[in-house]
Design brief:
The protein is an alpha+beta fold and about 190 residues long. The protein is about 50% helix and about 35% strand. It is built from five helices and five strands. It has helices at about 1-60, 65-75, 95-100, 135-145, 185-190, and strands spanning about 80-95, 105-110, 115-130, 150-165, 165-180. Strands 1, 2, 3, 4 and 5 form a five-stranded antiparallel sheet that branches. Strand 2 and strand 3 (about 115-130) form a beta hairpin. The longest helix has about 55 residues, at about 1-60. About 15% of the residues are buried.
Length: about 190
């Protein structure tokens, strides 16, 4: 009976040992899958952030960035009555896109029209109407805009002396073409 009990105990010990080994392997596999899931979540969060940043780039500079540019260009004695902020796009041949390094281009395959490559360029424009105490102050403001890396071009559409209740001022209308790289330095380290 002792020998039979020893054999039964040995048999149970062998099965329990196999079960423990099986559980340890399953535990190890579960830990590996949990780590993989954690890695995938980290990758997902990183990719979602990149998508957010790329969408920001695709849409050109934000109005917030443009107001920061205008604020940095501001000269005491200048005030504004109206801002217009507009973004539009244009499709250009890839050759034209290669000629310039300004703006944000997206390469588009046009399979329906002779399978040629085209580039989509986001254009950002701003119009400012306002007043300055004199032409020197207006010139300083325009110069600050022109020298900003965020601005491609500034056109003075109209200036003229206007009578105001407390004297006169120089009225002005400006058309500004914005570089689509404006504000990009905030994003470049995230890509």
């Amino acid at each position: 009976a002792v020998i039979g009990g020893k054999a039964t105990l040995s048999s149970h010990t062998g099965r329990l040992s196999a079960t423990v080994t099986d559980f340890e392997q399953k535990k190890l596999l579960l830990e590996q899958k949990q780590q993989r899931l954690a890695d995938m979540r980290t990758d997902r969060n990183f990719l979602l952030e990149r998508v957010r940043v790329l969408r920001s780039l695709q849409n050109g500079p934000s109005a917030e960035v443009m107001f920061q540019v205008v604020d940095q260009a501001y000269v005491e004695g200048t005030w504004f009555k109206k801002f217009k902020f507009r973004q539009d796009g244009e499709i250009r041949g890839l050759e034209a896109a290669d000629e310039t390094d300004t703006g944000y281009f997206i390469i588009v395959r046009d399979s329906e029209r002779q399978n040629r490559e085209q580039a989509w360029r986001m254009n950002t424009h701003m119009e400012i109407s306002g007043h300055a105490l004199d032409h020197t102050i207006l010139a300083g403001f325009v110069n600050n805009l022109v020298t900003s890396e965020a601005i491609e071009d500034v056109k003075i559409l109209k200036t003229g002396r206007e009578r105001r209740n407390q004297g006169s001022a120089i009225g002005f209308d400006l058309a500004i073409r914005v570089s689509n790289t404006a504000g990009r330095e905030r994003w470049s380290n995230r890509l």
